[in-house]
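[Q] Does anyone have a clean structure-token version of this?
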Amino acid sequence: MPTIKLRSHSSRKYIRRPLGHKDAPRGDLVATGIRSSARWTRLSKQIRRERPLCERCNERGVLFPSQEVHHIRRAETHPHLAFDASNLRALCRPCHEIEEVDSK
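[A] Here you go.
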């Protein structure tokens, strides 16, 4: 997994964190604002409650719990669809990482 190096304020040593960590740079401020909003937090929890299984795994006949919510059409390019439930998929972390790589 790719990592980024962040400087620690206290020890001045580098801390290795996975790319995608909340401190990792995001490309778009609008999308960052959407992902950090209370509305998104509530909606993503609701989607995961309504769809408790990973939709991608389920298509292949594997039952695995959903852990994250993925925008089918990216929030950076389609901010008007950011909170539209039809634009969201409940996925497990490995599937979400695959979807993120494929959609870029």
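[Q] Thanks! Anything notable?
[A] The beta strands are 3-7, 14-18, 68-71, 88-91.
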